[in-house]
Specification:
Blueprint lengths: L8 H11 L3 E7 L4 H13 L4 E7 L5 H22 L6 E7 L5 H10 L5 E7 L3 H5 L12 H14 L12 H5 L3 H13 L6 E2 L1 H15 L1
Parallel strand pairs: 1-2, 1-3, 3-4
Antiparallel strand pairs: 4-5
Length: 216
């Protein structure tokens, strides 16, 4: 019986290379609760073997501060790449709400820092509008996030979900059955050039779903 041959160095390198992530994505969110939990759960659900997704809390603050924190993370990543050869981020998303007066400056700051190609993801009046789109389309403007929570809770009640609680996790799983509807509603608003309400969260979701298809 022939002796079992061990793997060659070339085969081991090829095997190691096939396991290494091909995409490195940074998602910076405002706080440590709703958005952070949502994208962490999305990441876990998609199980992307060739994509490394880093979800980071921007620790609140103003929209401008969140962009600054994103730039700092990019600079640290650049240094790690130059020093230790660690991979650079392929895509960088920065999320914030449009219920603050400085949001337009934050968008401009992100675009002006062209080196890292930061993609600002805006929601007006707030991220929770993305949740509402899972259940219905609306182009009626909201003055603030508090005003939006009332119709959101109304939709939650219809499907047996408790009133919205910002500190609660698990919303991705609860909303997942209506994800395609949310994407369609967000695209419809985009096509109508609506500025209040609006959300660009679907851009990240679609991008990550495409990575799953790419991973096979």
């Amino acid at each position: 019986m022939p002796k079992k041959r061990g793997k060659t160095e070339q085969e081991l390198k090829r095997e190691k290379s096939s396991r290494q992530p091909r995409k490195f994505i940074l998602i910076v969110v405002e706080g440590e609760e709703t958005e952070y939990n949502y994208f962490s759960e999305l990441k876990q659900d998609l199980k992307l073997p060739t994509t490394n997704i880093k979800v980071v809390s921007g620790s609140g603050g103003s929209c401008i501060d969140i962009v600054k924190n994103t730039i700092k993370l990019c600079e640290a990543n650049q240094k790690d790449n130059q020093k230790d050869g660690k991979p650079k981020y392929d895509e960088i998303f920065c999320l914030f709400d449009g219920d603050r007066p400085e949001y337009q400056k934050a968008i401009n700051d992100a675009h002006n820092y062209a080196l890292y190609k930061i993609k600002p993801i805006l929601s007006v009046p707030c991220f929770e509008f993305w949740f509402l789109l899972h259940y219905r389309y609306t182009s009626s403007p909201f003055e603030n996030c508090q005003q939006l929570i009332k119709p959101l809770n109304k939709e939650f009640k219809k499907v047996g979900i408790e009133d919205y609680d910002k500190s609660k996790s698990g919303y991705y799983g609860l909303l997942k059955p209506q994800l395609d509807q949310a994407i369609a509603n967000a695209k419809k608003l985009e096509g109508a050039a609506c500025t209040n309400p609006l959300t660009q969260v679907h851009d990240i979701v679609i991008y990550l779903q495409a990575q799953k298809n790419f991973s096979g």
